[in-house]
Amino acid sequence: MILNNEVSKVIIAYPDRLVRFGFEIIEEICKAHNCELVTLSDLSKIEKLL
């Protein structure tokens, strides 16, 4: 869906819940397709979403 530009934001609890390794690659793919990758383990991002 990211590659088809069907989503603009992906919200995950922790980076390791998405992939065990290669999280940086997923981040770069999201950047290339204008998709924001939000990790809820960062409390400041949670506050922005609320």
- Average predicted local confidence, pLDDT: 83
The tally of structural domains comes to 1
Percent of residues in helical segments? 40-55%
Low-confidence stretches: none
Distance between the termini: 25 Å
The neighbouring-strand order within the major sheet is 1-2
Largest sheet: 2 strands, parallel
Give the total of beta strands.
2
What is the radius of gyration computed over CA atoms, rounded to a whole number of angstroms? 11 Å
SSE order:
EHHEH
Beta content: 15-25%
Count of individual helical segments: 3
Structural class: alpha+beta
Shape, per Cα inertia axes: globular
InterPro entries: Resolvase-like_N_sf (IPR036162)
GO molecular function, one term: DNA strand exchange activity
Structure explained in plain terms:
- This protein is of the alpha+beta class and 50 residues long.
- The protein has one domain.
- It is built from three helices and two strands; from the N terminus they run E-H-H-E-H.
- The chain has helices spanning 15-18, 23-32, 43-49; strands at 9-12, 36-39.
- It has a two-stranded parallel sheet.
- The model has no long low-confidence stretch (mean pLDDT 83).
- One of its GO terms (molecular function) is DNA binding.
